Amino acid sequence: MVTPLKQPIVFELEGFYVPPGYGAFLFVLALCNYMVMLFANGVVLCIIVIDHNLHRPMFVMVCNLVVCDLLGGTTVLPRFMVHFLTGQKKIAYISAIAQAFCVHTYGFAMQTILGVMAYDRYIAVCEPLRYHAIMTSARLHSCCALAWATAVICIVVLFAFHVNTPLCGNTIKHVYCSNRAILNLACSPTPLNNIYGLSLAWSVNTSIFLVIALSYLRILHATVKQGRDARRKAFLTCAPHLVVYVLYQIGTLVLIVIQRFPSLSQNIKRFFSILFIVIPPVINPIIYGLVSKELRASIIKHFYKCRSPQKSGGA
């Protein structure tokens, strides 16, 4: 009979296999990824906060997306850097639960926020004259709060199953902690958690997909009747949101599909399994910064404004 572990429990992540001499190189790659993520999201967040012309529903939602991206990237990238540089794979029980909680919250909040953004784009394109009457400040903040609350409450319930669950192993067979990776170490099967987790993932993915699909079908139907300029404006308004959603779904799809190829090396599988949490936080702010005309113009304006005092000082 296997004896359950007693607190304090310290897990050991299997992590990546790092060939001798490559740790510093991988550390630099992870550091660059993290710095680009912090810089790009920081610029978008600061510009939206500073520029009062951007204090509009769409950009407030972009700020929520930025916070979600920062949560996801900061949850895993610093620990990857430590692993690559020092080879440290151990993680305390509380830290493991915290990392797993944040990873799952990032995943669900990303979808609920994108669902709210789809609703906002639908109102903006299909009800332009009533947009400000519908998307009031109170409704905007209620939608954003609902997106976060839904994600957090769902994940709190998911992790409630960890209470009083005895663990008989301490090796997590992944590069980061997750609900399933931790409960795989349980001394006995956890069917309730499995059923709830699968039901939650299916219901959230399906409901958000339906919200976004119906919103864009209505937008498409509304713009078909309008002129070319109106269609172009609607496309530019919706393109960033749709690209961000598609990229995230591709990342999660790769995470599922890659497990169906047992012949692939563990390093390749683990690399593809982290794409959904390390790539979107870097690309999302760049997409919004490049495609959104108002945000791009504001970034350029503040960039030149910051350079002007330096030139004056040098003169």
UniProtKB/TrEMBL annotation:
Broad class of where this protein is predominantly found: membrane
Pfam families cross-referenced by the UniProt entry: 7tm_4 (PF13853)
TM region(s), chain numbering: 22-50, 62-85, 91-119, 140-161, 195-217, 238-259, 271-291
GO CC list: plasma membrane
Bilayer topology term: Multi-pass membrane protein
Domain G-protein coupled receptors family 1 profile: 40-288
Top-level taxon in the UniProt lineage: Eukaryota
Location in the cell: Cell membrane
UniProt KW keywords: Cell membrane, Disulfide bond, G-protein coupled receptor, Glycoprotein, Membrane, Olfaction, Receptor, Sensory transduction, Transducer, Transmembrane, Transmembrane helix
GO molecular function per UniProt: G protein-coupled receptor activity; odorant binding; olfactory receptor activity
Name of the protein in question: Olfactory receptor 2K2-like
Native organism: Gymnodraco acuticeps (Antarctic dragonfish)
